[in-house]
Amino acid sequence: MKLICSAILALLFPVLMSGQNPTRIVDPNSGVSTTVWGNDGSIRVKLPPEQLFVESFDATTGFDTTKFKTPASGGGGVAALAEQADTKLGTGTTANGFSYLESKMSFPVVNPSWLEVFYSINVPFPYVTNTYFFWGVGTSPTAPTAAAPLTEAAGFEIFTDGKLYAVMYQGGARQIIGDISLVTGPCNPNACQPGDSSAHVYVMWYRGDRTFWGIMNVTTGAIIEVAHTTSGAPGPNVNSLPLKVTAIASTGAPLSNAQVVVNAVAVGDTAHNGSFLDDPIYPTQKASVSAAGALSVQPPQPRVVQNKSASSTGSVATLTAVFPANTSAGNSIVVVAGVGNGTAPTVTDTCGDTFKLAVQGANSTTFAATFEIVCTRSCGVFAK
User: Fold this and answer.
1) Hey, what CATH class is 50-269 in?
2) Cα(52)–Cα(115) distance, rounded to whole angstroms?
3) What's the confidence (pLDDT) of residue 100?
4) pTM of the model
């Protein structure tokens, strides 16, 4: 009896053996471990974001004009140059010159999930004095300046001091979230402001109440967090914002046209709102939506539901054909008639429908006149 009770107690109160610790799955770069739900002990696994937008500049004309507004520039700024593989925006060499590129679509926030904004970007190195760059999401004045570059925004910024920052703009007011420069920023040297002009990957996890900024570690390829907010207080007043890339010359003229190069840009959604209408049997066949947002709906292919024919071996004034069953309102009746003496035939039915001549041809060995109507109601029909 004692042995049985001991076995039961061992099942109810398991004891860890000496030297053993509970196993955890931990990210080696961030140190973040998995979450285990308390109600059933299952591991929480988050699905990757679903793609809402992507532009990789594969076309020979550069960016897709159905995705982006017409590039804006002024004051000597060099407008976005559309070319295969990337798009370049330049400050120009005139004080207060500007150039920016903005997506047509604004991306609504998806609390409690995230918008993941991805950029592959080249920026000038070494820094060109009197220049300003921004990439992220945002809106701007019609003619932005380095002192007032954006209205509502969140993203990465190279300010006129040459440093890289994680920033937000709230009604035009600049909010510094993090200094991520190599000189003064408290960040991982492999995931800070690049010390070269090569392409680097920048990611922002964005929503109304919290936002995280990350840069790809050039050694491991992992995205390392470099800044974050703890609330929505410093964030933009308008959260649903378009993609935005900006290059501006400061009040002093740059010595050269400094360019920001956009290699790729994408937006994902961890809420998976980018749903598709697809065929249940052939899921690769999906509905098409135009650039204006119109769903393309193709009419169904017509099929014959009933037919009847009649002919005459001699000359007759009329010829009658009676359908086997009543017709259905909304269906079409097609009549093909051939006449041997060149007289144009007429077609009537017992529903009182008006037939429209669709095709008429000269006398031949084939039936050459075709009439068509759409039934207005259900009734017994004979065509004459």
Assistant:
1) mainly beta
2) 9
3) 97
4) 0.67
